Queue: 2 jobs
Job 1
Amino acid sequence: MSKEKTGIRRLLTGTSANQMAFFNILGPVILNGVNFFTVPVFTRLLGAENYGVISLYTTWVQIMTIVMGIQTSGTIAAARVHIEEREQDAYYSSILSLSCVVSAGMTLLVAIFINPISKFLQFNHLAVFLILAQSFGAYVINFATMKFIYHKQASLNFLVSVVVTVTSVLFSLLLIMGIDRFEDRYWGRIIGYVIPNVAVGIVLGVAIFAKGKKGFSKKYWKFCLPLCLPLIFHNLSQIILAQSDRIMLQKLLDDTAAVGIYSFIFNFVHIINVIYGALNNTWVPLYYDHMKQGEMDVVARRSKNYIALYTVLTMGFMLLAPEVVKIFASEEFWSGMDLVPIMAVSYYMVFLYSFPVNYEFYYKKTKIIAIGTCMAAVVNIVANYFMIPVWGIKGASIATMISYIMLFVFHHIIAHFAVKEAKYHYKFRTFVPGIIAVAVTGAVFYLLLDYAYVRWGLGVVLGIYILVRMIRQKSIF
C-alpha cells in the first residue's frame, strides 16, 4: 500500500486530538459554508414571514426530538466509563429500542389528540406528523453521532452531518422552487428537512440494532433510565433557553416578520455555537481520559489553551459580522444587526458553562444538571415576559443573555458544592480574562460599527495571534 493511501487511512481512523479536531471542525466549516451560501437564497425565496414559520416549526422539532428519544443518547458517555467494552454495542441497541418504544407511544397519543395539539401548535395535522417524523429521525441521528464522538470516530460523525445537511438543502431548494404560491413556500423547506432526517435515521438505526442485537434488557434499561430521565428536563430547559424567545415573540408581539428577523440573526450568530459544539466533541473524550488517569496538570494546560482559542474566535466573529450579515441577507433583515454582540456573549456563556457540566456528567450527576438548567430556563421565561413588550426583539436577546449568564453561574456553583466525589478543579478566575475580552469586543462592535477597515484589521490581528499560538503548541488544545 502506498504511503499516500496509508496517510489517508490514518487521517480517517486516527483518534489523536488534532485528527479528531480536523473532522469535528471541518464538518461545521463545510456545513456553515453551505448555510452561508444558501441563506441569501432562502431568505429571498421565502421572505421574513415564511422564514418565521419555518423557525417555529424547527423549534417544535427540537423539543419533540428531546421528548421522543427520552435522551437515552445522553447516557453514552457514562456507558463508556462504567460499562465494559464488550457490552457496549448491546447496550446501545437496547437503549435505542427503549427510545423507539417511547416514540411509538407518543405518536399514538398525538394521533388520538391531534385536534387540540394542532390548535395549540398552530400547525395543521400534516405538519404535526411531519414534526414527529423528523424528530424521531433526528434523534436516531443524534444517538449515532454521540456514539461516534465517544468512540472517537470523528470521520463518521463528519460524514453523517455532511450528508444530512447537503441533501436537506438540495431537497428544500427543489421543493420551494416547485411551489407557485409564495405564502406556501415554507412547505418546501419543511419537507426538505424531513426526507433526509428520516432516511438517514432509519439507516443508522438499523446499523445499531444489527451490531448490538439486543432489544429489551432489564440491566441496561435500569442503568439508562435514572440517568436519561433528568436529561429530558435538562435538554428541554436548554431548548427553552434557546427557543422560548421566538415563541414568546410570536405570542406577545403577534409579528411573524419580527420572529423571522430575530431568527435569522440568531441562526447567523449560532455559527460560533456550532464551532463550540465541534470543539467540545473533540475536547470531552480527551478530558475524560485525562480525568481517569488523574492528569490534572494536563487538564489545566489544555483548558487554558481551549479557552484562549474560543475567546479569540468569538471576538473575531463579532468584529467581522456586520459586513457578512449584509452580504448574506436582504435589507429587511438588517434591522437585527444590533443583536449580534448580545447573542455572541450569550453563546460565549454557553461555552463557559460546558466546563462545569462536563465535570458533572463525568460523575453522573444528571439530576443536579437538570436542576441548574431548569433554573436558568425559568429566568429566561420571566425575563422574556417583561422585556419583549418593552424592547421587542432586543428585549428577547437581552433576556437570553441574562439567562445564559445565570446558566453558567448556576452550574459553576453546583459543580463546586454538589459533586461530592472530588473537588471541582476550575476556579472562577480562570474564566474572567475571557469574559472581559468578549465584553470589551462587544462594546467595540457598537463603537466601530461604521469603521469596517478598523474592525477587520483587528480581526486579522486576532487570527494571526491564535494561529501562531497553535503552531507553537502543536495542538489545537
Job 2
Amino acid sequence: MDKMVPVPSHSIIPERDLSSKTILEVHRLGIDFGGLHAVEDFSIMLGRTEISGLIGPNGAGKTTVFNLLTNVYQPTHGVILIDGIDTRGKKTWQLNQLGIARTFQNIRLFSKLSVEDNVKIGLHNACQSSLAASMLRLPSYWSAEKKAHETAMELLSIFDMQHMASWESGSLPYGAQRRLEIVRALATSPKVLLLDEPAAGMNPSETAELMQNIKKIRDTFHLAILLIEHDMNLVMGICEGIAVLNYGKIIAKGTPDEIKSNPLVIEAYLGRGKEAKNA
C-alpha cells in the first residue's frame, strides 16, 4: 500500500493520487429524519484509486451514508462532489452516469434473468442502440449486442464466472450472487464503486479471494472503492484509509494501524480493551 498523506477536510489519501483531483469529496453531509440526526457532519475525500473503508456498529448510519451518496436519500445539508460536480438535485441514475455505482446489503439481482442479462443491464451507459434499430433488428443492433456480450463475458471473467453466463441468476449460490452484483455495478463504468458488505455470507476462503479481486478491480479499472464491511480481517487487510461511524458521526479517521489503536474505536466499535474480528 502507498503512504497515506493528509489533505483538507481532515482526510488522508494515497500518495500516488496526490497529482490527480480527488474523485469524491463529501463536506459536512447530514440527514434528519424528524428530530433524529441519522447522519451528521460527515466529511470524507477519496483519491482516484483509493480503497477505503467505512466501519461502525450496527445502526451507526453506514448504509444511510451510501443512500446519501447515491441520492436515494436527499441530504438535509452538506455537499457531495463527484469528480468536482455537485450532485445536489440529481437523480440516482444521473449520479450513475457521473460515475458512482453501488452494491446493496441485501442482494438486488433480477433473479429470473440470466447471469449475462444481469450484467448487460448494467451496460446501458455504454452499449446502446436506437429503438428503431432494436425493433427492426438492424445491423447496428446486432453490433451493439455483440459488443455487450463480449463485454459481459470479460467482466464475468474477473470472478471466473463466464461459464455461468446462461444460468438463472436466482439459482446461483449466495457468494456467487454477491460477486454478480459487483460485476453488474462494474458494467456501468464507475469512477467510484460503493460496496455494501461485499463479504456478507462468504466463508473465509471466499473472503480471501474477494480481497484479491477487489484489489484486481481497482488496478484494472483505475477506480476508487469505498466499502462497508464487518469483517475486520478484510477491512484491515485491504483498506488504505478507514473512517469509523458511530451514531451518525465520524469518530475517527486514519490508516488501519491508527484505527486499531484508537481508544474511541476500541471502546465504541471493537469492544473496550480488546480487538474483535467481527462486530
